[in-house]
Amino acid sequence: MADADDVRRLALALPGVVEVDSDGFDFRVADKGFVWSYPERQPGRPRVIRTDIAVLFVGDEAEKQALLLGEPESFFTTAGYDGLPLVMLRLDRVDVGRLAELVTDAWRMRAPQALATEFDEHLAAR
Question: What InterPro entries does the annotation carry (predicted)?
Fold first, then answer.
């Protein structure tokens, strides 16, 4: 079972990542967000930052739908995210290994190509 501390540790281990000051967690690479705390909105109530749920950049609608349909116990979306390449992940429904894959994939889609290539070469050299 993963949590916000795991998100933070995994995101900050990736090259070029900056944590933006927030009430939860918010990570960017090259000024592009790739994983952050879910800002839950309910009508007539103030927004609540949910650190037990991560919003992940997934690249495109096909990947979003694959995650939503393939792992509905872990992933969900809301109307406010319609048309956006983002999914919400219930952290307590994934292990740290799966979270590492998801965070790294989100980072890779947002990182500059040169940085992602350098990272891949570093991994291959290990």
Answer: YjbR/MT2646/Rv2570-like
